[in-house]
Amino acid sequence: SFMPGSEKAIERPYRMAISYLYEVYKNKIYKNKKEGKKDIFNLVKKDFKNIFKGIGKVCSDTELKVIINQLITGFNSPLTSSCGRLFDAVSSLLSISQHNYYEGQAAIELEMVSDESVLESYPFMLRRESNNGFINEIIVIDTLPIIEGMIADIKKGYKSSYISAKFHNTIIDIITKICEMMHKKFNIKKVALSGGVFQNNIILNRTFKMLKEKGFAVFTNFQVPVNDGGISLGQAFIAHHIANTLKD
Fold first, then answer.
1. Do residues 103 and 206 both lie within one domain?
2. Checking DSSP bridges between strand 217-220 and strand 190-193, what pairing results, if any?
3. Adjacent-strand bridge partners of 190
4. For labeling, which of 92, 141, 173, 225 is most exposed (least CB within 10 Å)?
5. Domain span holding position 136
6. What global pTM score does this model have?
7. Domain CATH code at residue 184
8. Averaged in consecutive runs of 10 residues, what is the pLDDT profile of the chain (248 residues)?
């Protein structure tokens, strides 16, 4: 999805929520571009008033209009494949967290409200795409069905704890499905779970358990952070190794 305002979207999860809502509604824009602009703004604004009970406290009509225009034009709205931004959007849509005052705040608070007794999940789509001339194609996760399912549940009045749980279960289903696809294609049975998303205990523990049940050998970090801290440590180690090699 797109990050309207670039790094501002990291600090303000509601910007990512708007971005995902825009992706859902842009298919309903009409042929006339001017009319389309107006209609997409009104559609998102209307649903924001319904979905975000306190939208006026975090996003004025003026800011919303600027964000929609950024998404339409692509100005200062880089693409992101970050799972963290998806967690931010969901946390915002559920009115759990509208600002990240520290790293991962929205995702942490989303995890905290999740009802772990819930077993349902949302639909999702996986599609294969060419990888710019490389031999192996890439698998793209289409998250729009997840957002559409969440919007439907919000409108039905389901609790945030229930929707959060369904979302977590969906992420686990996606990871498991991709691992199964990789096993089928490459006969790989070893899976390493790493990256900031696995700081989430629900995601880590349930994914670990599900993959083990399906016969995978599963590995994860214990002494080294699973998030960007692990990358920093790795970079420091490589720099140290290069420095020692040059001395020799």
1. no
2. parallel
3. 217
4. 225
5. 114-229
6. 0.88
7. 3.30.420.40
8. 94 93 73 55 70 73 89 92 95 93 95 97 90 75 94 92 98 97 93 94 97 97 86 90 82
